[in-house]
# Entry
Amino acid sequence: MTDSRDKYQGIIPAFYACYDESGDISQARCQALARHLLAQGVGGLYVNGSSGECIYLSVEERKKVLEAVMEAVGGKLTIIAHVACNNTRDSMELARHAQALGVDAIAAIPPIYFRLPEEAIARYWNDISGAAPDTDFVIYNIPQLAGVALTPGLYQEMINNPRVKAVKNSSMPVQDIEVFKTLGRGKVAVFNGPDEQFVAGRVMGADGGIGGTYAVMPRLFIKADDFIHSGSFEGARAIQVEINRVIAALLSGRCDLYAMLKEVLRQKGIVCGSVRAPLMPLQEGDAAIARQIVKMIAKTERGII
# Structure
């Protein structure tokens, strides 16, 4: 566990699940990806979240991913382990496991599918947090997928829990970042979630970012963050424009976004395998798109770094 006071700032890529050729979790490939991202200069890793295909992995598979990451880079990066399952018992098991490994924080989306009252969501999060009493807790707000939003009332209830140290805000309105920063009164960090608005989120007050496309172009996000720190907002905006061009290309294939992201990494020499069904693997023509994306990223890096 890192002791840095800045551990909930900066660029934290969402970690991808890495599979072998049979579609099983490959701890060796997870370790290779983690070491690669460490070498790129990121501030941490967000493990077993949406980008990690968490809802398609078993509890034991998620443990294997986190164990591999911690063995590879634990203590060298901020590690936030997303532990939410669609039931409290499994979520608490993952929370205990994450704490035993020494992660910096655990995180959780709200329960999905059934529409629960805010009281039930708060109890779910607090029960998970209670299973890892020596570990910080990060609220993951992603209403477009979870089907429920982090409201100001629910947020104020949750920050009564002293272990709540951050919010990963993946809602699209940038204003939400300002709301959570204000209500947190300087005690709760806020991460920007949507990669397409990283710069806007940082300007609005986000302390850093956690994003699904960071792993294929970490140096671009790091440079944009550096510009924000120095007050060079035009420079940051220019990088965001190029990042958004890359994201548009990533979404232009027939395959799932995460299959495309992994193909980009494969062409850079980092093998993560495919994606877990029912996500769509690479289709005809997708590898060619990935080759163009690799060139786009390299060209932008040469121009600004």
User: Anything to note?
Assistant: The mean pLDDT is 96. DSSP finds twelve helices and eight strands in the chain. The first strand starts at residue 10 and ends at 13.
